[in-house]
Each structure stands twice: as C-alpha cells, then as structure tokens.
Amino acid sequence: MKYIQEALGHGSMQITSDVYSHVSKNIESDSIEKFENHTQKIILGAEKGHKTN
C-alpha cells in the first residue's frame, strides 16, 4: 500500500487506505468465492466417484 501511496502522490497512508481499501475487500471476496466454487466442484466430483487427483 505504501508503494501505491507514493505512486499516486497521496500525502498520507490514510488517504490511500480510505480511497482504495474497498478494492482489497472486493478482491478478497472474489477470491473466497472462487475458492468455494472450486472446492465445491471437487467435493461433488468425489461424491460422484470421479478422480480428484
């Protein structure tokens, strides 16, 4: 986040955090959703007798 602050010329880390923290939360939420979908496919495949590696 420090790199972003400096690259954008924000005077403080708080400004950068206030403006961009939602982006990190969205990325985290998307990653969790993708992980859950992937693991669900693995579980369903195992239940149907498919190889899961």
UniProtKB/TrEMBL annotation:
The keyword Transmembrane does not apply. GO terms for molecular function: DNA binding. InterPro entries: DNA_brk_join_enz (IPR011010), Integrase-like_cat_sf (IPR013762). GO terms for biological process: DNA integration; DNA recombination. The keyword Magnesium does not apply. It comes from the Bacteria. Keywords: DNA recombination. This is Integrase. It comes from Niallia circulans.
